[in-house]
Amino acid sequence: MASSSSALGLILLLSLPFFIKAATTAPPSLQHRFTSIFSFGDSYTDTGNLLLTNHTSRLGRLPYGETNFHRPTGRASNGRLIIDFIAEALGIPLLPPYLGQSKEFNKGVNFAVAGATALDTLIGYGAVTLFVPGVFPSGCSTAYLGLYISNNKGEYDSSGCLNRFNDFSKYHNNLLQKELQRLQVLHPHVTIIYGDYYNAAIGLYQPPNNLGFSKGGLRACCGGGGPYNYNTSALCGIQAFTVCEDPSSYISWDGVHLTEAAYKWIANYLLQHSSVFINSRSH
Ligand SMILES: *[C@@H]1O[C@H](CO)[C@@H](O)[C@H](O)[C@H]1NC(C)=O
Ligand SMILES: *[C@@H]1O[C@H](CO)[C@@H](O)[C@H](O)[C@H]1NC(C)=O
């Protein structure tokens, strides 16, 4: 890991952590502002580590990876992830999994399976820009909707999401933002940015058209039946699942993870709404 370098850049911690190494000079466009990404996170940002540690994982089977890559890469989606679209926007190659020991190592690497690492540690290593995502609106998660089906309409919002889980996500994100503000005061020389995944994603679920996700926001493209096509006995990639013809018309890929099309939309929202990217453009 390039921890000896003086300026490691942007980090996503908790659910989707990565960080991007800042360029030593300040060139004009977003394309040259950051030179590498280092990522700390889970399956929402894992570009292949889990699969390298467990070759029997369903992430190693089609239809995972059927879009864009045309083969399973270990990503938990039909195609690219948010982090891939951010890398593309920054002009950085897609992140190789760190367990893969790729030649592209110096362009950044994905430590997703390593889990959340303390922000302080990363700052200690020289990170200068940290991008820390909140959580998605979990009340709109297909898996939760399938597991906690209710006859009481009052439990759902106008998008069909479960209010109590969305409330919990908002609560989590509020605490996270308070903690980030505290850390920002403690570390004034580091830029700590909150990645608003909740508001990036919530717009996708709003009727009537779900932003072109015509099959609706809540039903999974790939799954084994049931009202939301999420069946824990027949998960995507395992046994009796089916996969939709056009994943780009769905938000939910496998009930837990989103489609490439949804991740692309969210990445664009983050690139347009996060000060670190906006300010980078105007340099
Ligand atoms: C590897 O993946 C398979 C399939 O998902 C799972 O059943 C198994 O428990 C995993 N093994 C480990 C060591 O995590
Ligand atoms: C869930 O999957 C199991 C195993 O394939 C199947 O027997 C069951 O009918 C499925 N449930 C629904 C609601 O489709």
Automatic annotation (TrEMBL):
Domain of life of the source: Eukaryota
UniProt entry tagged with the keyword Signal: yes
UniProt keyword list: Glycoprotein, Signal
Gene Ontology MF annotations: hydrolase activity, acting on ester bonds
Keyword Glycoprotein belongs to the record: yes
Transmembrane annotation, as ranges: none
UniProt signal peptide: 1-22
Similarity annotation: Belongs to the 'GDSL' lipolytic enzyme family.
Name of the protein: GDSL esterase/lipase
